Amino acid sequence: MSRAITITQQAIEAANGAVPMFVKIRDAFTSRENSVTFEYIANYQRISILGGFVVLERGERRVITVRGKPAFIEYVSQQLNAPGSTIKQLPS
Predict the structure, then answer these.
(1) Looking at the predicted structure, is the pLDDT value of residue 16 above 80?
(2) Cα separations (Å) of 44 from 53, 58, 59?
């Protein structure tokens, strides 16, 4: 099963999460927003039959999109790439 998750600074704050003050200060001086995509896979298998006419999926796969300013994305990326994590960053 494939599910998408989007992480924003507003979503973290709404869930009573803490975004460090230094991240907020660094982002205050930046006007542009970016996004980075990560993928979480747990026992995921995808089988394509007849050139993609039939696709069978088993396991768990989630695409995580982080949207925000550069310092926020860097902070969340560090948290997601922690040692032992099964989350990997997809190429841009």
Answers:
(1) no
(2) 19, 6, 4
Three-state secondary structure call for residue 73: helix
Rounded CA separation 82/30 (Å): 26
pTM across the whole model = 0.61
In which region does residue 68 sit, left (phi positive, over 0), alpha (psi from -120 to 50) or beta (all else)? left
Instruction: Give all strands (DSSP E) within 1-92, no chain letters.
Output: 2-7, 34-49, 54-68, 87-89
Distance CA(32)–CA(35), nearest Å, equals 10
Q: pLDDT band at residue 63, thresholds of 50, 70 and 90?
A: confident
Q: Is the distance from CB of 66 to CB of 36 less than 8 angstroms? A: yes
Contact, 80 vs 37, CB < 8 A?
A: no
Two tokens, residue 35: 């996004």
Give the confidence band of 15 by pLDDT, cuts at 50, 70, 90. Answer: low
